[in-house]
Design brief:
single chain; about 400 residues; alpha/beta; TIM Barrel; eight-stranded parallel beta barrel; three-stranded antiparallel β-sheet; 14 helices; 20 strands; about 35% helix; globular; binds (2S,3R,4R)-2,3,4,5-tetrahydroxy-N-oxo-pentanamide; binds cobalt (II) ion
Amino acid sequence: MRIDKAEVIVTSPDRNFVTLKLTTDDGLTGLGDATLNGRELAVVAYLKEHLVPLLLGRDAHRIEDTWQFLYRSAYWRRGPVTMAAIAAVDTALWDLKGKAAGMPVYQLLGGASREGLLAYGHASGRTIKELFDSIRAHRELGYRAIRIQAGVPGLNAIYGIASNDTFEANEGVRYDHEPAQRGALPAEEDWDTRAYLRHLPGVFEAVRSEFGPELPLLHDAHHRLTPVQAARLGKDLEPYDLFWLEDVTPAENQEALRLVRRHTTTPLAIGEVFNTVWDYQQIVREQLVDYVRSAVTHTGGITHLKKILDYASQYQIKSGMHGPTDISPVGMAAAMHLGLAVHNFGIQEYMMHGERTDRVFEQSFTWTDGHLHPGDEPGLGVGLDLDEAGKYPYITAYLPFNRLADGTVHDW
Ligand code: EZ4
Ligand code: CO
């Protein structure tokens, strides 16, 4: 089974997606997600200019060897562009191996460790009333775990809150509002940490008294706090029994989490911007977090994320794979196969893709009672309709960024 053809497909049905498609000499095709939100074309160039020529003629069965060859032979290791490109190759090779074997990928990874994957969605609101409506809408869609993001009085636009238009157009639940607005320049949002820290505990108080103690609730601080601010937030939220508090501090400094951990028992999750096991080395060994957030798409594929999860499992740390709409249906399928197979699955983030995206990518996963299952098609179980994909050319899109009241650029 040799790789005969390697194509990079860029399509923008509801947002930009980059997909690698490998075709073998025996006519099988495999797909891999290479979408890096806001920097998509850098990965396209990395794949087209540097990896595709190396792949042609290689034995498609040699997944580990191909991974090591691409990682080590580049000399320049790690980084999101490199690791998203390697992830796409790795995922496409697992898809091919599954098709060659006539088995879904999760079977090749050891078989199912559970019946389905608990998933959480994103409820948000500028006001408590809007937030409650959004939570109810998610429960009606079947979600059994919910992330809560709320507007902060005095701040106009902040992370994770559906804008007025998209909120109404999408009845509060479809997610094309999700960061990376289309446009020539990044949108500017504002931020005030003290206002946020004052406001958020009251939001959780209101949600718990309305929806009761059972519902698993999550929250994403999106890298905005110092360690001591994060410690305080973790303490203040303890009465509301969060499933996790995500990305409290900027991810580069792993040591920062020691201080946070010392002060709070609120479970912590981190890592959606990490791209190798080395980013996790200290926080896993010192048990500074409870969930690792890496996606297959941004962490070197199924092969490398499996190694991270196996390492984490020695410390009772579980998976919480990143699953926003910028992970394509191919990346989501890879996450589901891996999540179904590993013992230390925790929860899967799941934001529903738009209808146009669902027409471009033919999918076979199921969504039952708040749980995902990748289905039993050979490989990943995702197809790509090239005619549909061709209808939606790339559109420049950037993640927004933040400034404080005095104009200082803040962590986003
Ligand atoms: O900001 O997917 O937990 N989810 C998140 C996401 C990220 C975007 C970045 O591309 O933090 O909303
Ligand atoms: Co996040």
